[in-house]
Design a protein that fits this description.
Active site (chains A, B, C, D): 25 (nucleophile)
Keywords (chains A, B, C, D): 4Fe-4S, Glutamine amidotransferase, Glycosyltransferase, Iron, Iron-sulfur, Magnesium, Metal-binding, Purine biosynthesis, Transferase
Oligomer: homotetramer
CATH class of the largest domain in chain A: Alpha Beta
Strand content of chain A: 15-25%
Largest interface: A-B, 61 and 61 residues
Function (chains A, B, C, D): Catalyzes the formation of phosphoribosylamine from phosphoribosylpyrophosphate (PRPP) and glutamine.
Largest sheet of chain A: 7 strands, antiparallel
GO molecular function, one term (chains A, B, C, D): amidophosphoribosyltransferase activity
Domain Glutamine amidotransferase type-2 (chains A, B, C, D): 25-248
Amino acid sequence: MPAPLSNAKPFLAHPFDDDKLREECGVFGVTGTADAANFVALGLHALQHRGQEAGGIVTHSMETGFHSARRFGYVRDTFTSPSLMEKLPGTVAIGHVRYSTAGSKGQTEIRDVQPFFGEFSMGGAAIAHNGNITNVDALRRELIDRGSIFQSSSDSECIIHLMARSLQRDIPERMKDALRRVEGAFSVVAMTRTKLIGVRDPLGVRPLVLGRVGESWVLSSETCALDIIGAEFIREIEPGEMVVISPEKGVVSHRPFEARKSRFCIFEHVYFSRPDSILGGRSVYETRRQIGVELARENPVDADIVCPVPDSGTPAAIGFSQESGIPYAMGIIRNQYMGRTFIEPTEQIRNMGVRLKLNVNRALIAGKRVILVDDSVVRGTTSRKIKEMILDAGASEVHFRIASPPTAWPCFYGVDTPQREKLLAATMSEDEMREHLAVDSLKFISLDGLYRAVGEAEGRDANCPRYCDACFSGEYPVEPADMLERGFKLKTAAE
Amino acid sequence: MPAPLSNAKPFLAHPFDDDKLREECGVFGVTGTADAANFVALGLHALQHRGQEAGGIVTHSMETGFHSARRFGYVRDTFTSPSLMEKLPGTVAIGHVRYSTAGSKGQTEIRDVQPFFGEFSMGGAAIAHNGNITNVDALRRELIDRGSIFQSSSDSECIIHLMARSLQRDIPERMKDALRRVEGAFSVVAMTRTKLIGVRDPLGVRPLVLGRVGESWVLSSETCALDIIGAEFIREIEPGEMVVISPEKGVVSHRPFEARKSRFCIFEHVYFSRPDSILGGRSVYETRRQIGVELARENPVDADIVCPVPDSGTPAAIGFSQESGIPYAMGIIRNQYMGRTFIEPTEQIRNMGVRLKLNVNRALIAGKRVILVDDSVVRGTTSRKIKEMILDAGASEVHFRIASPPTAWPCFYGVDTPQREKLLAATMSEDEMREHLAVDSLKFISLDGLYRAVGEAEGRDANCPRYCDACFSGEYPVEPADMLERGFKLKTAAE
Amino acid sequence: MPAPLSNAKPFLAHPFDDDKLREECGVFGVTGTADAANFVALGLHALQHRGQEAGGIVTHSMETGFHSARRFGYVRDTFTSPSLMEKLPGTVAIGHVRYSTAGSKGQTEIRDVQPFFGEFSMGGAAIAHNGNITNVDALRRELIDRGSIFQSSSDSECIIHLMARSLQRDIPERMKDALRRVEGAFSVVAMTRTKLIGVRDPLGVRPLVLGRVGESWVLSSETCALDIIGAEFIREIEPGEMVVISPEKGVVSHRPFEARKSRFCIFEHVYFSRPDSILGGRSVYETRRQIGVELARENPVDADIVCPVPDSGTPAAIGFSQESGIPYAMGIIRNQYMGRTFIEPTEQIRNMGVRLKLNVNRALIAGKRVILVDDSVVRGTTSRKIKEMILDAGASEVHFRIASPPTAWPCFYGVDTPQREKLLAATMSEDEMREHLAVDSLKFISLDGLYRAVGEAEGRDANCPRYCDACFSGEYPVEPADMLERGFKLKTAAE
Amino acid sequence: MPAPLSNAKPFLAHPFDDDKLREECGVFGVTGTADAANFVALGLHALQHRGQEAGGIVTHSMETGFHSARRFGYVRDTFTSPSLMEKLPGTVAIGHVRYSTAGSKGQTEIRDVQPFFGEFSMGGAAIAHNGNITNVDALRRELIDRGSIFQSSSDSECIIHLMARSLQRDIPERMKDALRRVEGAFSVVAMTRTKLIGVRDPLGVRPLVLGRVGESWVLSSETCALDIIGAEFIREIEPGEMVVISPEKGVVSHRPFEARKSRFCIFEHVYFSRPDSILGGRSVYETRRQIGVELARENPVDADIVCPVPDSGTPAAIGFSQESGIPYAMGIIRNQYMGRTFIEPTEQIRNMGVRLKLNVNRALIAGKRVILVDDSVVRGTTSRKIKEMILDAGASEVHFRIASPPTAWPCFYGVDTPQREKLLAATMSEDEMREHLAVDSLKFISLDGLYRAVGEAEGRDANCPRYCDACFSGEYPVEPADMLERGFKLKTAAE
């Protein structure tokens, strides 16, 4: 593995968000505007929830060639300085935001930040990748044996090296060659001097949408990033589709892969995507509210108020309240000035922990039977703390209702999940979890209930599920080759 | 006026918040803990909504004397570095957060950041002030004539100079001397080497509460800052009361001023205080929800959904929905990564303006009759933009309901308000405002309705109102001496 | 004493310079140019050797009033940014550079950085002070008793407070009042909205010169700062003189103090002033070369080469070589990239110490009898290290020749000296010092020889010495009142 | 060419140094000490004069693998922070300092900063290169055609790609393969997990020396960097030699190239190397003094004083004075606080230009006939300014004596020189230059005189010159292939 560079890392993620699954990336691209870099900066700002650690932008100008900048930190704090943005001229641009990945893989370095750039004999190309390549170990070994020099520890870099070694004469064809060799999940936005390119893997695990504003074409992970620049949502890039966009020919669709049934990530509906995005024709907010409705139907309970765990539990809590008739109330208040870190210097203060981010509305909670609606339970550490806060404030009962099924399996398709043994649901039954959290009741939405909420009236078709739900079901639509080599055990018939 | 120092200013406030009244300060103090500076940092973090521009902390250690640090920026970004905090040892500490004040007064400089410190023959003292002194011009002239040298442009500095010139032999007595000379609103937290002191002006315009955690006593602008450190809320400091707190004698109460009827700021209930604080024995969240209930009773309208203008309109929108039976929905989504600035480099992008911070949930809004609940209308600029976003998203009707009466008069008691002529309600009737905003209806809660929501069943007693409501009524409980000298006109009998 | 602020300190001075006496300040002022702040920045850059730790500039513009900026670090790194300099408009400006003072007094804070500013009823004034006030403790107590609030720990601040309390109606008169109350050494540059003022104490201990460029008048500690802006050297401000300079009246001379014999600091000739300055009509470089000539006459020795200890020993080494006929050679090379700090992380490296800054020219030194010429011996720590370097490189003999008499007494007139017991010459005879340093010979120039080199053909007149030479003679021309109170013992008849 | 990254550039070089030839790099490596990174940092600090813009260090630790850091700025300011240095553990380390190269090549980016790292199937390797590859254009095209992805615009990167494609099984053999393909000048320091490697090109154009301290072996561009860590100078790496150093086998010498006559860069003696280094067994200081002696013999002139242009002209001026008997004097004083930039904000100040860095000792110069000794004349811009300063100060005559022959040809072997047409001596005869500079006389040392000063008693052997003197003679020992392709014209028979 290449040498870790020692650049300062500006922050760790929220202590609190350690107990969430985390989408690892957002991608965005635009062509046909003199303001390309600013459009990408705005798009990345709208996609910041998909990756908070770092971002990068590559542009191309016919006068001055390719330009690139990569920065740690929020887009709002980095890609907003006029002195930086004026160094990114051009009419085509792509960008990427990424999360930090956990300590096991070591620290992220600036050279790990995408987009990756390569210069080929027919010109340069840059790529930005959302997803994860599941056979990267083997590919990397093979490329190094033949003389490629890797500059990062990112799985995505092998795409550009595969492109460099393709014998094809144009870049989109080289990209097809490269992507046919990789396995896993990928929504890729790429660019050449004149073209903007978007690709989704055959299963379409990660989202990618096409938009239009004025004369410009836009590619984005989510529709909320079209809204921020006033772009019209045209359509989703289809699973297995490659679009090559140029001013002369517009959007040209290719089908480089063999056809397969799509398996979109169901967790995008539950948590990853922004509530104001539209996924598969459905409002994410409305889907989440509907999950709350299903949850209230499946697991009713007598109580005085329904409180969301802010902010991700809010839409489901609204749905739960509307379906159950139990009043909705903001029993937990989030500190809006909570930053990415708040160093707690003494033991005394460290023990105060969660209050830095959340506070209970004591006057509201005291003496009440409280239903808490959260989006998911990962390690369970947060749920315990929140329960304690609520009881400290004088609640008479605490009932957890969770807007997703038990998360029992790690994701290998571009989501940062703990190792399996760290997932509460991998080692405990629902009842054991309730006891572990010491709450009056704990109920998860069923997998069928979740499918109903996302529009499958019949629930999940076990023979041919419409979504990737491996984190709940343990059924992996793409074999995680590298992980199996490292010793990961798939679900056995007995499980 | 003293020379403005040229320290870099890190930011301007939210473009969006320019259309809000802004509380100018929060204060916090603690005594009796070896962790005093960390407690103050946590308390200021919880009070950050009361002042986002800068903060300061003064501590005293018996071994090393007084220590002080003042910083621009959020507490989470400044008073969290171990290297800074270890320079603030001591068992007594006070702190202050402050907002920027508008351009008219020029830029804030680091030397304008409180607490202010003075060394007297009997030892040092530091003070932090929330409020505004209405006769500071005269006091300042008088003090300069006698040889005082002012180091800041802050009105609060005159308190420490008045103390320096008092003939009293101890610091609390000097503070009484000083505060008897100042007019206006003041909640002051002060400290000597051994004592923590809290004072509220006779009208009690600004809040100040007393708490206890372990062996330590705490003073804070709001109860939410007691919660963050796990302190118990003991009581409010009373209007006109001074408490002198020391480890030996505990809390000793003084009454340095002549008794008057109290006039607490009613806008603290509407907007300034955090929803999880308790004011006058009432949950701020619950009061705001109740404002929504009153608003729905006073101004019902037939519609499909009730949407808050996030985040300050949320509790009133919940109350409005509950009273009216019209479903509550998050039609406007706030970008949680919105920072303090987002420089918009081109005209094209500048025109996108408000989308950086807010986005509409199009799928939810399209074709609906929408009630928008906001906390107040100041200049009206924001309301216009939000209305346009909602209509762009396809709403069939837009009805504004405002959780406070028309804001027609500036505040001179520690709130940053535009000049009177900039206030929409100062120049237009409700009907003209509706036309100006071009919405289907626009209704404000009545002043009586607001008094009912804060617990006055009979509404406002015009002869002896329980609150300061000058921003709505134009009735100023303390004559704004400096402002009158500068030409401000009080309400005439005719108005 | 006021609370130390916790601003970060960018550096300590050279580890190497710890073994030098250090001038504490340089002052500069200009009037009559639209470029006033830039002129002052250039002047301070040329005076940087008089104070490396921090600098400040105050300007006044008729349109925008007073402006001020204070910064830690070198002038070249601070007062050169266009964004800072454009915040310092005006046609009158003064500035100040200062050294750090040793740990005993605690860290310097930004508020200790001059110029100091005060606003009086007749307008504002700023002052910058080179020197030291020897009765500041008593003055400070008195001022605090009467209600003055000190913002710094600087002795110079009492001047502005004394001015604030004067009953005089104009600022120059108030300044006379104030300076008649202070004892010690002071060369002060001050400004009002319209006037530039310069004053030297009656003994004229510190330098101050008047220059002219175009229509502008300039005041500066040294002539080298006139050269940098192309100003013509007009004359020295005389001991006990105050000049008040305005565009209308030009330079008006006042004599506010009772006449005394002047006692200029002789160490300015030896070390403090820059070699390209002119002091008392004499080239500093030439005086130092002449010291080398006197030294060679007084203390000849047979040797192969004469090497300066760079850089301050260079002119005397040249003179020594010319007088003795022994060839001059650069046997010690200074690393020109040596910064203000070089953190040495391990014991192993810490022991390498002095090589970071200096290296010996081994090929030149090996087998040679070497005369090392240095400007002074303070603690003797540096001399030891240099001797070891030279011997390591194979020198056969090492002879030290010192261009000043033994430094046996601390300075209380604006120079940072160690406590008396730390001065090598306070506790050892010349012979003991030679043994302590373990060199083949060690000789200092005599006090008479030094007086001859600065132009007193007869040497020192013991009854009425022309210079302040207290650091050599222990004869203090102004009684150090504060120091006596703190226990310092003057020279006894026996010594 | 790859996209320029937009990282901020901290500085430009001295305005003054724009008129010098500039060595582009220094290299340093160590093996066999737990303090490897600190040793390299110290070594690079001592080599800072060879490259001021940026530096990098790579280390290898058996426990934690390879580590790397690259920084803009001086070593003293970057590789001295404990928090950075502790991220560079290991027992083998190499480092590099580099100059900025002129605008024509675009800005240097952090990814252009060496050492370069590559991971091969048999493990990682890092290289640091001093020199310049003259056939890099062709090599780069070839490598890109075969699928290599370049991350920098540096010529040195092709070495690591050539190594990646070698079929050899160990890294030293791969390095031989790679270096046999490159043409030009190279002194390379490289490392694997266990070995330290040093190579000089067959002509030995750039220096590289071997040292030893305790159990550690050291490679360095110059001996002055051995001194700083107390290492003993063992020998020079010979032209065409590769040394492979490991703890087990010590220093093993290889001869990978065909034998050629060596051609060491003569300008290293004149200017590039530090005066306390030893080159080819000769003290650089002594060589430069001897150049002064030769210069005085070749071009005597009657005058009053000999002044060096500081600091590079000093040794030759001393020699000139000693040979001629005319007294040596510091007529020009360098401001030791001059930084890398001093922004001059107004036209008025910009015209003061050179005084920021240098000042004339007026009292010394007035009325004198002055000989100025400088190391070289490149564009001539500096010489003009200095002459003006000297005349302004009242000199009666100005005679320039230059310690190198006229610089008439650019260097293509690792030195940053202006294009040929910018070199004063490329377009003017000595007489025209004298007229252009408007001085009383201008004389350069002859090429033969220079050879004599470096020890060739017979002067230059035109048939087989011992040094590379292309910058003076136009005779390039390695054909500059890339430059010829870009249109550079070699010296014709007629010239």
